[in-house]
Every structure is written in structure tokens, then in C-alpha cells.
Amino acid sequence: MGTRQRLILLGAGGQGRVVADIALHTGLYSEIGFLDDDQGVADTGLPFPLLGGFSEYGKWLGEADFAVAIGNNAVREALQVHRWRRWSIPARLWRAA
Q1: To which H or E segment does residue 8 belong?
Q2: pLDDT by residue (tens digit) across 42-92?
Q3: What's the pTM value of the predicted model, to 2 decimals?
Q4: What DSSP string runs through 30-95?
Q5: What are phi and psi of 11, to 5 degrees?
Q6: According to the model, what pLDDT value does residue 48 have?
Q7: Cα–Cα distance for residue pair 20/51, rounded to 1 Å
Q8: How far, in Å, CA of 90 to CA of 74, rounded?
């Protein structure tokens, strides 16, 4: 975990932007992007590209680290339980922050 140069954040709202800022300042990732089902968030001045909706995470498996960056507990839990079964959460990102 944490050996890839690409980080994909699941959630592009306020929590996602904070996590992106932390990831950027650690220097661990050369590419950062977001997945979010709310495609309108792309028009809100995201600091990194919106790569698609949550259902597209599968095409990035093995090519990126993932971090859940959803602040709403109920939404985050529902997505973790029902959508994602394999995780590559970059633990060293949090230690470096």
C-alpha cells in the first residue's frame, strides 16, 4: 500500500478537498483525482480532476491507491458496505500528515 504514484479520492466534497490537500503536501503522489457520483461537483473548482462516478473505481484497481474522503458517516458507511470490497488505502499518507 502507498507504493503507487496515483491517489484516487472517493468523494469530491469538502472532506475530499481536505484529504487532497494533505496528500499533495506529503509529496507521496504525483497524480491525484476524485471519483464522485455528483458530477456537478466538477463545476465547483476542484483542485484535481473528477475522473468519474463511484462505479468507475474498478478500472483503477491495481493502478492507484484509494482513500475514502466522504464526510457524511451514513453515506460513507453505505458505500463501503455495498460498493467496495477491495481497498488499497494509503496508510502512510496519514502518518505523514
Answers
A1: strand 6-10
A2: 888 888 999 999 888 888 888 888 888 888 888 777 776 555 555 444 444
A3: 0.77
A4: SEEEEE-S-GGGGGG--SS-B---GGGGGGGTTTSEEEE----HHHHHHHHHHT-------HHHHH
A5: 120, 125
A6: 93
A7: 14
A8: 22
